[in-house]
Here is the input.
Amino acid sequence: MKGSQPHACQPACPCAQDEAVRFAAPILPALCLFVLTGAAGSASEGDFGPTQENAGPVPAAAPAGMVWIPGGEFSMGCKDPRGDLCGGNEPMSDARPIHRVRVDAFWMDRTEVTNAEFARFVEATGYVTVAERPLRPEDFPGVPRENLVPGSVVFTPPDHAVPLTNALRWWSFVPGANWRQPTGPGSDLKGRENHPVVHIAHEDAETYARWASKRLPTEAEWEFAARGGRAGQAYPWGNELTPDGRWLANIWEGGFPHANSKADGFADTAPVASFPANGYGLHDVAGNVWEWCSDWYRPDAYARQARADAAVANPTGPAQADSFDPQEPGQAKRVQRGGSFLCTDLYCTRYMLGTRGKGAPDTGSNHVGFRCIRSP
Here is the structure.
């Protein structure tokens, strides 16, 4: 198997229990393109200035299930994590330059939106998610008509080690998979009411947010909140992945994609708030499921928005027409943040602070969800 030599992090990193592997960006079929790239934070604060929170009292009445994020000025982005313990093997260049950003205060959902919360929305509105809708031939030219059925992308691990050169070895388009049936027909939400809702396309998340009188966070708002008032830390809780041997996020442990040791207690999604909150009271800003942001993706977004003389105020990212993914030119992508239960230092360290992901806005999977914010 290619990549059989361990990288420098592996002997001491708790994620790396099996053979080392090279990261391969997922290459999914035309029905369900879903590509992840990102940038990881560094254990060093060398290029990070202090986080300066806005002054002022916390508003008295907190919306149900939300916490106050004071806003302020912080250093956004990450350093090259290669060489850091458990930092992975990618330079994560799309999260540089590290630059100063200022965001206004806002309320943020304490956890990712759950199945129970999304069910209340659907019951109240009759909303049908993208994954539940019939597919139109004009949207998928060349795809056989018999394949144009509602469904979504599901992680389907092999039972043995495989080269990580073809994501179709562990991702499949499953007809009938959607938020109600997260692994496809025959699955349901029984016992998963408090898990994050998944198989959510960007449109689904936006529609829920409007119904709830909220909105999706910008990438800058999400990162400010996830850092919890800290500056330059690798994780929401500090710089060590497992302090005192404790797992503090739902990520992948063991050989990917075939041998999850479940050392953190979970094989796939975990109930929200299964792990301690960050400094602002937010749970699961590392791992569990990816979270949609409102920004369109470009790998050079930071270089385009950074200023040498002042902090950038409330950036919203590039326009849709300017969205660009070098791995899939012509397909506009939205930013995703936080990583998921499938991330590991062996191929994907995007549970680290400062990391960036991206996804086709019309595509969900069983490791993509969201949380909302509300401006005061």
